[in-house]
Amino acid sequence: MNIGIIGTGAYGIALAIHAIKNNNKVTMWTKFDDEYNMLKESHKNIKALPNTIIPKEIMITMDLKKCIQNKDLIILAIPSNSYEEVCGSMQQYINENQIICIASKGITSNNQLLNAIVEKYLKNDIVILSGPSFAIDLIEDHPIGLTLASKNISCCKQIEEYLSNQNLCFDITSDTQGVQICGIIKNIFAIGSGILAGLNCLDSTKAAYLTKCIEEVKQIICSLGGQENTALLYCGIGDLILTCGSQKSRNFSYGKLIGENADTDDIEIFKNNNLIEGLTALNGIYSLINQKSSQILSLIYNIVYNKKEPNILLNFIHNKSKV
Fold this sequence. Notes:
The chain is of the alpha/beta class. It has helices at 10-21, 33-42, 64-68, 83-90, 114-121, 135-139, 153-163, 176-198, 203-223, 234-245, 250-259, 264-273, 277-288, 295-305, 311-319; strands at 2-6, 25-29, 59-61, 73-76, 99-102, 126-130, 144-149, 168-173. The N and C termini lie far apart (50 Å).
């Protein structure tokens, strides 16, 4: 495949390196002068992946047209708040035979899923790529499973053909809605997992929390028009386990500070220095769902925004106390 990757952050770079290893051609685009110069001079994104060398076969450009034209697959690996601007700019260069792959996880400021923004500007087939994988694990060829979702399953199978290998496998679904929802709410539930870690809860308690999270993922997916079984794919239970169980997760680390009752200034410094996807998602999803669809989400919302005691999450796990 000839692949264009929009965005040069950690996950975009990881996908690019993996694609090159699978004998695909890759061009990456950034709109930032300083990022472009850093990538061209050092062959690294020093901020995102300081120890990763970007192969010279990967072309880096600031010309959006070069990154899009004559490509079979366009992968969007940019923050959710950039989708409106970037997809609008892509219109003039895209043709309808190209596949658009959304590799970002998130919700827009006006509470839309990312596929809705892409569909607003582009008429292409859309594939959602999601699942449990840190960028560095993909780069280092550790065994990983991801989910591909599209209304056109043949597009998923094309991507699977060119990106799968002995270390990367995919499960495939048509539930684009459910897969995106999983990618959003796992970051919120990771904040809750961090809160429990900050409260010094034992692994048994964390396991009880995760069990309740999985059940509520199913409920949220169904309430927003997705399929319940999507919660059991890599994008669901797999990503939930990874994000809720790893201190590499910024969402987990943020929640841990809250659970530890850290100084307010320290929490604010962490927020200002880190992109905490779960915070942005929390506001958006909370306004979309009925509280009954996820008591855990409501509890996390009340802890984060209404300054309720972190212990209310622990009490719910044991006693099903009211939100």
